[in-house]
Each structure stands twice: as C-alpha cells, then as structure tokens.
Amino acid sequence: MLNIARPFGDLDRPVDVETEREVTRWLHLEARLLDAERYQEWIDTMIAPDIRYWMPDMDTRRRDDPRGTFRHGESAYFDDSWHELSVRVRRYNEPSAWADNPATRHAHLISNIEVHATDDDGVYAVFSAFTNVRNRNEADQDIVHGRREDVLRRSDGRLKLVRRRIFIVQNILLSKNLNTFF
Q1: What is the pTM assigned to this prediction?
Q2: Does residue 121 lie within any of the structural domains?
Q3: Which of 45, 60, 76, 148 has its CA 20 to 30 A from that of 169?
Q4: Is 58 helix (H, G, I), strand (E, B) or coil?
Q5: Structurally, how many domains does the chain consist of?
Q6: Is residue 4 in some structural domain?
Q7: Could you tell me if residue 176 is inside a domain?
Q8: DSSP β-ladder status, 105-117 and 76-80
Q9: Domain with 56 in it
Q10: Can you supply a Gene Ontology BP term from the record (predicted)?
C-alpha cells in the first residue's frame, strides 16, 4: 500500500522510453477528455476505485517555518475519493448546475513530465506541470498554474490514476468557482 503523505519515497529510477511514452499519451488523453468535459468517460476509464484526489490550500510561511506550506489533514480545496469525484461528475450534468450552462471552455496544458518506477511492479510515480485555462461567457477567464504528483497503476492492461496531489502556485485562488478537474 502506498504511503499517502510520501507515496514515492526516494526516486531515481526513470522508466524505459516505451513506458514514458505510454504515460505521456495517457496524460494527453486525460487532458483532451477534460477539455471536452467528457467527465463520465474520464472517471470510468482512467480513475481507480481507490483514488485519492487531493489539492491542499497553500499557506505562505517563512522558509524556516517547520510547518511548511501545507499539511495533510488541514484545509484543502479537494480531498476526494472516487465517490466524491463521481458526485461532482453527476452534478455537472444536472440542469441546476448553472455554473456550467453555457458550457465552460477548457484548455489543460501538461508539461515537464517525469515518470519513475516505484517499488511496486506496474505502479509509476508521475510528476508534471500544468496550466488550466477556463473561459465562460464573454469575460470570465481563469488561469491556474501548478504541478501534480500522480501515482498511476496498471490494472487489466490499462493505466489508472490512484493518487493525485495538486499544488497550485497561486496563494489565493481568484476563481469564482472550481468547476474543473486538474
């Protein structure tokens, strides 16, 4: 079982080129599904049932503060299981989801991809940077930059997302809502 607080341990084991390419293609497909708001397909085909999708609230503290910028168990924008993600996905399809009607236009840009082997066969630690651009109506636009630490696990021949830690660079998120996935 992976340690949630430190799921990767000490990494210095890059994977072979073929595996790196497979993971990179997986990330690009995920971005395309999220851009097209194909959330049900995303959760059904790419998300593991034991997912932990976590985006902590980042605090600005001095470098010498032993608490760091975030802590597990403290404030978070997301700390979701598969059930909570599926509730969000279902909500997006409801007529009462006024924040999504008219549709939001998304662009998920993924870069700086690193793929490492873990101690578990078929489990990969994946690091990436992202830019998430959302535009609604005529003037509502949000741009969120950050980095992700993912754990992907091969299951029945397919890669599935098991853990996602999302760290945004903004200290204060100025978006009117968070009707997106990162």
Answers
A1: 0.85
A2: yes
A3: 45
A4: coil
A5: 1
A6: no
A7: no
A8: unpaired
A9: 17-168
A10: 3-phenylpropionate catabolic process
What CATH number is attached to the domain comprising 114? 3.10.450.50
Which tokens go with 131? 């830019």
Domain contains 182: no
Question: What gap in Å lies between CA 2 and CA 71, rounded to an integer?
Answer: 18
Chain Cα centroid distance, residue 59: 20
Task: Name the nearest CA neighbour of 5 among 65, 63, 74, 66.
Answer: 74
Give the chain's length.
Answer: 182
79 within 8 A of 163, measured Cβ to Cβ? no
